[in-house]
Amino acid sequence: MYSPPHAGDSDSEGSLLSGVSDSPPRGGSPPTPPPPKHRPSPKHTATAKPKPKPKPKAKPKPVASACAAAAPPPPLPSAALSDPHGLASRIAAAPALVATTSTVSSSSFRRLVQSRNPSFDPVAAFSASAPAPTPAPTATPTEIPTAAAAQCPAPDAPPRARPKRVHPNSVSEAPSAAAEVEQPKRPRGSGEGNFVRLNINGYGRKRTFRNTQARRPTKYRSWRRRRAGGVKAQGCGDEEGDFVAEALMEREKKGAVGDVGVLKAVEAAREDPSEQNLESLLSLAYGYDSFRQGQLEAIQKVVAGESTMLVLPTGVGKSLCYQIPAMILSGLTLVVSPLLSLMVDQLRKLPAFLPGGLLASSQTSDEFHETLQRLRAGDIKVLFVSPERFLNEEFLLIFKDALPISLVAIDEAHCISEWSHNFRPSYLRLRASLLRRKLNVQCILATTATATTQTLEEIMHALEIPSDNLIKTSQIRDNLQLSISTSDNRLKDFMLLLKSSPFVDMRSIIVYCKFQGETDYVSKYLCDNNISAKSYHSGLPMKNRSRVQELFCSNKIRVAVATVAFGMGLDKSDVEGVIHYSLPESLEEYVQETGRAGRDGRLSHCHLLLDSTTFYKIRSLSHSDGVDEYAISKFLYQVFSCDNPMGSICSLVKELTSRKFDIKEEVLLTILTQLEIGGQQYLRLLPQFSVTCTLYFHKTSPQLLADKDVLVRSVLNKSETKDGNFVFEVTKIANDLNITVNDVIDHLQQLKFSGEISCELKDPAYCYVILKKPDDLNTLSATITKWLSEVERSKIMKLDAMFALANFAVKGCQRTDGCSGSQHTQCIQKKITEYFSKNEATSDNDYHAQPHKSSPFLQADIKVFLQSNSFAKFTPRAVARIMHGISSPGFPSATWSKNHFWGRYVEVDFLVVMEAAKAELVKLVGKGE
Ligand SMILES: Nc1ncnc2c1ncn2[C@@H]1O[C@H](COP(=O)(O)OP(=O)(O)OP(=O)(O)O)[C@@H](O)[C@H]1O
């Protein structure tokens, strides 16, 4: 049990300050005196309210063009730097592949269909009384209104008249074409990532292409307006758009500080990447005196074109290892990052003379094309993309021949490995073979702060990085003082901890909790106790999250109470303490999160509150991804069903499929990705789309329009009528006309812009094309099940290893090597190093928490449960999940948490509960119930 030190005890055994490391203490005077920083006492900051920002003066600035709007301001004295080998001119000369891809005009659509369906007669289909196309205005493009935009208009928007209610299929009440004409938008939803369950990409959003009477301000326009007139946009609409726009504005503010000295240093390093030349570049470009451990070696290898694996602790400077090569190498540097917020942050931090850009699915068509234009003009040297982009053939085509890529940097590379703590299916696609084939990339830099030997081996194998090119330093910084204590009453102990030294004097603390509700509860408790705090988790709107981050970074709040969603990409150097209110799920997570403290190199403190109840809860949750062979087999039958012929576009509605097979959406995607890139390629995944479309006709009658428009004809043939409207699957139309889903959506948009139709898209789905049907589905199901259960087992072992380490620290530590009281820096560091150098996550069995292997009432309770819920169809896993209180798509907590047995057996081994459930279900089947 943790007994917090009393104020007067600060040097006693219980003190968290004893046994400090070599790094300079924050409070005292550090040996190498840093510029004296004023650190206001937390007591002041606790009550200090953030001053309202002065309103920027509205200074109207003409916007020359959309392209100029986002590019760093010319003239760039570093032109040679951004285009040292005439990259820009080569790109400009290349065919404008992408500029036209998202906009399929009637004629291009006609050509497209004809090219794929030679029997199609375009004259007959298009020439009849088609309305004359109205030129689309280009100056102020509008956006497909989002629900949010519809609800909260910008303050400067004129009051909108309530639109007249029109029957969806009304032909007479057609809106005037002039009022309706809009710029076509590139459809969103190419499956951008959703790391740590941040819903930053608007998955599940219902897309509405309704014609609007009033034009609504988009984020993009409001950003442009702000750029032009300094108007502070207020908030609604696309939150991510805001994020990206702000990053670009910030970069713009920095300006392209072309420096002849830097240019010369780049030239010198290009000719001879010696230590001296690179150091001189480092000093001129960044103002740093020397490289940190591992940096120079990594940069030299990358500049020499050698693929490299770099493992450095958090906050040491991995970004520098792709930024400096990006200056030196002639082509583009592509940086793959798992999170939009991380990309935005990295973009923001690029040095001013290293022009950067970002391609995210959340961007509007204008933003997307603007970035492409800048790319083609050679105005971008570093491009941030998410791994999901590699699904998109259109994206890959951008680089074909026209845009040479010198380097692909894969950030958080551990996501490639299913044995890592943060495996992400879309990272599986990042194989050296694909990068070489599709992008002609020879050099890859993979970076991570946390990877076990097994994970590293897998990453290096996938990216074909030679074993000699592994650069690895210790994964934990030695300026962190690590302490752990057990707690039976976490809230009470946490408050005591915060009120004792050293935490009581800290101005900036992150508290990590496992559950979202916990963060809200703890932060409210802190506020009630006059400690300024805010919660941060992925359930909060993006806007609120960035506000919390902003307040925390500017020290306007003292404590950020957050889930794992907080911190990635957070480069706040003066976080003085990290408290784990809940046990992290793995040592990797522990290292990442403690690594948020002390990035300024000063002594910082990290404390973990260990309680076994939370451990059991998290251990239960580790089973939430598990799948039975039976469910996988049924799922595979659906994937390869007879209705899905080879070569045609197939789709699986995510939510529906997930519920039907009781498999989480992320796991479905993992299986599909495995079918694509496993030993045998059975299918090709396409970007995710919403596939169910409801069409409303406004001007011409459906039949008349079908006579002139081949796509409408196909829709009428393939749709069902519901309430007088036409409902169809977009993939069916694409297959019928032998075009892509994107083409269908683009054409629908064209029709919408001409005022003919409006449509609603719903049901986000995984889309794929079958390339080969498996010979033996049962064997394939067994193989996939085995692989997934190993992943599940690995997750549990990681948690057990974390618990065992914490338990060892509080119970087994021999108080050697400077450990004392709850302070265990030395032994934790030693155990962490051991863990990362082992081939598999094994834990110290003596300090393992063994879940109970039996319980006297388990069997009887399961029997009662099954009898009282005989209306539902259970599998042993479903029963075990309910007994463990784990929500699943088929048995969601919203319904089942009200059940008497929900979570009752959380401390009994999951597999034991499953076995008991299986036995009871077999008995029921035997009785024919
Ligand atoms: N050689 C150096 N000397 C001094 N400061 C440096 C050096 N290299 C990098 N830094 C600084 O270290 C900080 C952290 O860098 P960066 O964000 O690249 O770390 P990181 O290793 O990517 O961290 P994380 O894993 O948390 O993303 C930045 O402020 C950066 O400017």
UniProtKB/TrEMBL annotation:
GO terms for biological process: double-strand break repair via homologous recombination. Residues 299-469 form the Helicase ATP-binding domain. It comes from the Eukaryota. GO terms for cellular component: chromosome; cytoplasm; nucleus. It is found in: Nucleus. GO terms for molecular function: 3'-5' DNA helicase activity; ATP binding; DNA binding; four-way junction helicase activity; hydrolase activity. Pfam families: DEAD, Helicase_C. InterPro entries: DEAD/DEAH_box_helicase_dom, DNA_helicase_ATP-dep_RecQ, Helicase_ATP-bd, Helicase_C-like, P-loop_NTPase. Residues 13-26, 61-70, 122-131, 139-154, 170-181 have a biased composition (Low complexity). It catalyses: Couples ATP hydrolysis with the unwinding of duplex DNA by translocating in the 3'-5' direction; ATP + H2O = ADP + phosphate + H(+). Residues 1-83, 121-197 are annotated as: Disordered. Residues 50-60 have a biased composition (Basic residues). Its EC number is 5.6.2.4. Gene3D superfamilies: P-loop containing nucleotide triphosphate hydrolases. SMART domains: DEXDc (SM00487), HELICc (SM00490). Transmembrane segments: none annotated. PANTHER family: ATP-DEPENDENT DNA HELICASE Q4, DNA HELICASE RECQ FAMILY MEMBER. Belongs to the helicase family. RecQ subfamily. This is DNA 3'-5' helicase.
